[in-house]
Structure to design on (70 residues):
């Protein structure tokens, strides 16, 4: 699992980052996963902050880098 400051990303956060890395927007991720946009935004924000990333792209890059280290 991807490491973050203080712990490991939740499986739902990993799924959201993976979908965002495919180029989907929040609305597209919500539709794909059958969740509300608010839920996806919250999971995205949580993952972004756990990595200390300022942007979605930075969060995705850090997630991919951490995943390759494991």
């Amino acid at each position: 699992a991807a490491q973050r400051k203080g712990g490991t990303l939740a499986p739902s956060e990993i799924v959201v980052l993976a979908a965002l890395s495919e180029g989907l927007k929040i609305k597209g991720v919500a539709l794909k996963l059958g969740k509300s946009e608010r839920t996806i935004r919250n999971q995205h924000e949580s993952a972004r902050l756990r990595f200390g990333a300022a942007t979605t792209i930075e969060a995705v890059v850090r997630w991919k880098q951490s995943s390759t280290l494991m």
The CA atoms of residues 53 and 59 lie 5 Å apart. The radius of gyration is 11 Å.
